[in-house]
Amino acid sequence: MKKSKYNKYSISKVLREEKRSNEYFEILLNNLTLEEIIALKLELGYKAIGFPLLGFPVWKSISHIIKESLLLYSITATDTKMDAIRLLGIDPKKFFKLLKKYKIEAYFTKKEKQENANNGNSIKENIP
Predict the structure, then answer these.
(1) Beta-carbon neighbour count of residue 128 at 10 Å?
(2) pLDDT mean across residues, the chain
(3) Each residue of 78-100: b (16+ CB within 10 Å) or e?
């Protein structure tokens, strides 16, 4: 199998470096369906704030949430952006527009940029 151009991109790696995931958590998570994960995440949000997310357009927002997660996955699972485009089955122009809209590459590179800035390297960040 050919090494991915984006092999350094890993959602698991980013979350583990941020101490938001570990091997045990990922094993447990793997046993849940996507529907269960989404429902559980919404339930935990409700419990954390103590009331339902009234006023938050969950139904309208879910398509954006899913599109962003598919873009994140496509970058980690493929060798090139063209492979990611083929995986998703979308037009290249739309793919690149969505990459910018959802700041997909920034998700994986923000830590590198912060480390370089801390080491005195000058890298301009566009991350809020």
Answers:
(1) 5
(2) 83
(3) beebebbbeebebeeeebeebbe
